[in-house]
Amino acid sequence: MSQTPVYLLDQKLPIMIPRVRDQRERKEVRLKSYERLQGSRDRDEGVLKRILHGLSCRSYEECAVAVPEAFGMSGSTVSRRYYIRASARQLKELCERRLEGYDFVVLILDGKTFGTDEMVIALGVTADGRKIPLGFIQTGAENERVCREMLVGLLERGLRIEPGLLCVIDGSKGLRKAIYGVFGGRALIQRCQWHKRENVVGYLPKTIQASVRRKLQEAYQEPTYEKAKEKLAKIRKELQLINQSAVSSLDEGMEETLTLHRLGLFRELGVSFKTTNCIESLMALVEQRTDKVDYWRNSDQKHRWLATALLDIEPRLRKVKGYKYLPKLRAAIQRAIETDEGTPEVREAA
Fold first, then answer.
1. Domain positions in the chain
2. pLDDT (tens digit, 9 = 90+) per residue, 95-139?
3. For a pLDDT cut of 90, what percent of the chain falls above it?
């Protein structure tokens, strides 16, 4: 008999193993049942899930669930051997996942802060309304060069843009330039109305901010392009007497805040795509899984944690509201592209 470790679920357990000899062959017989128990099975994945969902590495040994006699699970061992190994596989899976099998209608882009860096995350919405995290890139800011690199990477992994895409962004000039630079006339941009409203209001005295905020909200809630544009023009005229900087802020990219209106689908899909709320909700779920990290040691750690969180969240994401209208959105995007209505030049002229 000898004491040897085996694995039960993701925990290591010492057991006594009998030694068996073949008298005829005069040699020790390998026990297949014991060899199967020596494999860690879901060890890495089990540790990964527990740490990701809030279990401190230091507390892992006290929280072992399979057997009280589990041993060899010190905090340093868990962190160094298992979480790093499992999360590295998750990072590879997310970054190398092929995209040609998906039919994306909407692409939402926004940044999430990790320490002193920002991770720009791409979230795709398929024609049947599913939300799929596509990837991310680390940057100090949402500048054009870095964002362009990420979008080119999505194309190289098979992202199909020929049918046209609606790209929802917060108003970042770097993202906007990258989208037009990489996707050209195959993409329409919907600027986040919430960000636009708050940018404009930020230039105004506090005494009138609430009033102007309400008027902008009412204008954007109009179901048709003509009515929304008419109300925004009226607000612009009022602001000219108060603050010219606020007027400039309202003018910048105004047409892109009305893309869904212009496509005739604001009433049906405005809840989902008039703002970047879809991806901000995703980031709130990411934060639940990553805010336990007080100190980010290096870039690799940030990438592994973010990829692991995104893949863990993906199966839990609900379909977007109004997903039944996404085929109509696709058709409207294609009509706009065919008539050159969605090109950057036409937008600037508007």
1. 2-95, 104-349
2. 999 999 999 999 999 988 877 788 999 999 999 999 999 999 998
3. 61
Q: CA–CA distance from 253 to each of 82, 129, 181, 250 (Å)?
A: 48, 27, 17, 8
Q: What angle do CA 313, 319, 321 make, to 5 degrees?
A: 130
pLDDT tens by residue, 160-218: 999 999 999 998 888 999 999 999 889 999 999 999 999 999 999 999 999 999 999 99
- Beta strands at 187-191 and 131-139: parallel, antiparallel or unpaired: unpaired
- Beta bridge partners, 110, equal 121
DSSP strands (E only) in the chain: 2-8, 11-17, 20-22, 27-29, 104-114, 117-126, 131-139, 165-169, 187-191
Tokens of 277: 């709320």
E strands of 127-268, at which residues? 131-139, 165-169, 187-191
pLDDT digits (tens, 9 = 90+) for 37-67: 555 544 556 556 666 666 544 444 545 444 4
Q: How far is CA 66 from the centre of its chain?
A: 34
CB 1 within 8 A of CB 19: yes
**133, β-bridge pairs:** 123
Plot region of 340 (φ>0 → left; ψ -120 to 50 → alpha; else → beta): left
Instruction: Please provide residue 315's backbone torsions phi and psi, each rounded to the nearest 5 degrees.
Output: -65, -15
* DSSP conformational letter for 80: I
Closest by Cα among 104, 103, 106 to 265: 106
Which residues face 22 on adjacent strands? 27
Q: How many CA atoms lie within 13 A of 25 on its CB side?
A: 7
Contacting residues for 284 by C-beta, under 8 A, at least 6 apart:
none
Query: Tens of pLDDT along 147-174?
Result: 999 999 999 999 999 999 999 999 888 8
pLDDT higher than 70, residue 283: yes
CA distance 142 to 154: 17
pTM listed for this prediction: 0.80
